[in-house]
Structures are given as structure tokens and as C-alpha cells.
Design a protein that fits this description.
3-stranded antiparallel beta sheet; alpha+beta; 3 helices
Length: 182
Amino acid sequence: MKRVFFVLFLILLIGCATKEEVKSEDSTPVEKINEIGGENMRLVSDDFQHNGMIPAKFTCQGEDINPELAWSDVPAGTKSFALIMDDPDAPMGTWVHWLVKDIPANVKEIKQNSIPGTQVVNSFGKEDYGGPCPPSGVHRYFFKLYALSVPSFDASGKADFYKKVEQYKVGEAVLMGKYIKR
């Protein structure tokens, strides 16, 4: 009888170990980043790899234009997309570099130096993309794409934007790049 329990315990233990989340180099669970509500949405860029360095072209030391982004595996029922690019490593707290809402549901990419929807005022006090520009050290920049259940929403600022995205999201994908000012 003890042997049966031991064998069952081992099977359970092995089963749990195989479902352990794979973690990226920054210890963020990769499966959790790109999976909300059972949907697997993917966000990629031809300009940099997840957890890789963002080229200077897309920063304050370059052309300060947005990189190319593309996504796939969009959840059913998606009516629009919203994008948040922010830096949680900023000295004064999370610094918001770009907020875009009302990206049509049929759009699956953002080209370099383009505006795919309606921009909202960021931490720079402007609506346009503001590239990485850390005061010191390496900072992480998260491009977070949200599939939403509504075609549009009103946002009266950054806090309201984040709140509405959480309220309407049906899927999420994240791409993280790093930058150090030279």
C-alpha cells in the first residue's frame, strides 16, 4: 500500500515539474507574459529580440522613432488593440513612453515611425512616441499590446488609460527590450 502511494506521489511530482513555467533571463515568466485567459497572443519585432538591446535608432540618441511591431494569435472577439510602452526602472516610478488606443482589430503590425491609432499623452507630456532615454544604467522597456473587447474607449490620461485597458482586455502580449544610454 505504501508503495502505491509512493508511486502516485512520484507521478504527481513529475507531472507538476513538467508544467513549471519557463522563465526568461529577467525572471519574468514567459508563458504568463503572453497568456491571459487561455489565449496565446504573440508580439514580436524585426528590430530587436525579446530581452535584447533596443537599437539606438529608436531612442533619444537616434531618430527617436518607434520600432516595428507585429502580432499574431489574436483572441476571438477582439474589437481593437491598445499599446503601452513603459519603463518600470525609471527613478521616479514607471515612465510611460507611448500610449496608443483605437488600433483597428484588422491591424496586425505597426511599421517604424508610424501611428497606428489614437495617441494619448505620455510621461513626456506629449502624445508622440518617446524613445528610451535612461538617465543611467540599463533600463527595461515593455511594449504591451492588449486585445480589447471594445472598438474604442475614452481615456482622460495615463491612469485612466491603464484602467480602461484592464477593464476591456481579452488578451495581452509583451515584448521587452533593454537600453543603456551611451
